[in-house]
Amino acid sequence: MLHIVDDEEVIRDSLSWLAYSRAIPAASYGSADAFLRALEADDPFDPAGDCLLLDVRMPDMSGTLLFDTLAERGYTRRVPVIFLTGHGDVPMAVDSLKRGAFDFFEKPFNDNKLMDRVQEALQASREAGDRAQVDRRLAALSAREREVLDLILEGKMNKVIADILGISMRTVEVHRAHVLEKMGVRTAVDLARLLR
Question: Which GO terms describe its biological process (predicted)?
Answer without folding.
Answer: phosphorelay signal transduction system; regulation of DNA-templated transcription
